[in-house]
Please model this.
Amino acid sequence: MNERTGAPTLMGYLLMLRLGNCVIGALGCLLAAIVCGGLDALDSYPFEIIFSMVTVFSFAAAGNSLNDYFDRETDKVAHPDRPLPSGMIKPAGALIVSVILFALAAEYSYFVSSWSLIIVLTSIAVMVGYELLLKAEGFAGNLAISWLTGALFLFGGAAVEKMELAWILAALAFLATLGREVVKDIQDIEGDKGSRRTLPMRIGTRRAGMMGSAAFVGAVALSPVPYLQGLLSIWYLPVVGAADAIFIYCALIHFRSPGQGQKVAKLAMLVALLAFLLGGVF
Model:
């Protein structure tokens, strides 16, 4: 079908859903379930884990569709080849797909646990609120993105009935993501003028940087809790210690170079994820 006519195409929908990101989200949910429940959880909760992965996949696809719907005007300039501005998909089609996929995510979560249903309904509210209001408000948007990142661990924990660990890991992910989002806004302060009111714009880059550093330090302070409560093994400690050192370095270096600070924060998050995995499996 000719994309210039505005007629919807299957390829257009597949591009809009960004299936690669959806798969990564589903695998992240699987990893979170293994961290929270160990490898034995794969045998004990196979269906719950599968339904959780499908829930996250559907939710991510719905979120991508909703994002493209709300960004369709700015994408005409920034991303003219995306399905909506190029005419491959009509806006109404993107919105309908998003609603259907959110509904499916809620339905799938129902078969996992009551916690899973609560988490997905809350995350849908956060995602819709982000696109409608919070994206342009800077720090509120940072909080929304941080919740959605931490929710991956909540989905994993709900699948294997290990919410006591999932909440702690979600809090760690929330704080680390929040710090990185603030640093990213400092880096992008010039490009965001006129479209967003970010935290650095409201209170200045120095104070915003201090809040970002406080989030990183908060994650470091919380990191021993899973081991101290006997929720993760001793294998967790040396690797999370390395992640903590990188987070502290990031809390200092981003004042001089926000771009480098953001990259260092991403590295610290990957090392922390490895620590979670080692502590949960061994």
Q: What stands out?
A: The chain has two domains: 1-161, 169-282. Residues 1-161 form a domain with the Tetracycline Repressor; domain 2 fold (CATH 1.10.357.140). The mean pLDDT is 92.
